[in-house]
Design goal:
Distance between the termini: 10 Å
Number of helices: 3
Shape: elongated
Radius of gyration: 17 Å
Number of strands: 0
Strand content: under 5%
Structural class: mainly alpha
């Protein structure tokens, strides 16, 4: 379950990248796209802020405690099971 929590944060970060830097952009080549992503990263890293998972909107309050509990009791690598 801990891996799923991490994946959610990664997905959220890519959504933010897409929404703030790439959506509705016109890129004539791959280097243009790479340059835009690097510009976003530079601007984002100038004033970094941690992601905050807000409970009560979509996730129930038990989701975060479940992730923390599973992470603290896990002895091996996280495995995603479906």
């Amino acid at each position: 379950m801990f891996l799923v929590c991490r994946l959610n944060l990664v997905e959220r970060w890519f959504r933010e990248l897409t929404d703030k830097a790439l959506r509705r952009g016109v890129f004539h080549s791959v280097p243009d796209l790479i340059a835009k992503i690097e510009d976003y990263l530079d601007a984002h890293n100038d004033n970094p802020r941690p992601f905050v998972w807000r409970t009560g909107t979509r996730a129930s309050p038990g989701v975060l405690s479940g992730c923390s509990r599973r992470a603290s009791t896990s002895s091996g690598p996280s495995v995603l099971t479906v």
